[in-house]
Amino acid sequence: MAEQKARLEWEINKKTSWLGTSLKELYQYKDLLFRLVRKEFLSSYQQTLLGPFWVLLQPILTVLTSLLIFHKIIGVSTEGIPPLLYYLAGITLWNLFSDIFLGTSVTFTQNVLVFNKVYFPRIIVPLSVVLLSGLRFLIQLLLFFAALTYYYLAGEVVVPLQTFLLAIPVILTTAGIALGAGLVFSIFTAKYRDFLGLLQIILRLLLFVCPIFYPMSIVPDKLKWIMNLNPLSAQFEVFRFAMLGKGQFTADQVLYSSVFMVVLLAGGMLLFNKTADRLVDVI
Question: Is residue 178 part of a domain?
Fold first, then answer.
């Protein structure tokens, strides 16, 4: 009996690890990860008139709408930065967050048929969403740099090259918060379908609670504590400071956002991996 047990290469049991899978196993499925990214990117723009140009059209239309409402009608200050450039910086980072958050929050509802038929580490699907959203973000970031170059050559802005690297931890923190929140909500959307509508409401409210179309400097002091509770607020301010040299934030706010991201991401991944297999059986 002991000899037969020693020959077993793997064993199926009722236990589910909080860690879900190992890094070694994830590496073995790297081809599947990249194929999922390629498949989703191509399928998103098949049978469309503009194809991948939609990646750029979304921020362009949002910026034009923001220019009309927040600059022309309301007259919100952009701290001396050209309004188009100011709004584009915030919208580019926001799109990264919203794409990852929405994409991961429907992991089970959109992949239940695949999960029921084929085994692979379930976390592969959310990771593919992160990579795909990151690819779209890089394309939109090129649009931002093109606009930044234009305004720099026109003498309307000064490019703070020495702070550009600060954008890297901002991007990673924002993506981490989006992934962690998306993993948590993916469990709720699998159990309760009306959570999909709630997600849209949350995103619309969060869009205006984040300093995307306005600077933190214009927020009244008595309301700033609400803004500071939002871990994304500091990220938008740091991102604009890194790219445009304008932003209001403190070290405590940045530390709070970073700790929030680590806790949320760790908790989301553990909860996702622990409940993934059971959820597939009840959807």
Answer: yes
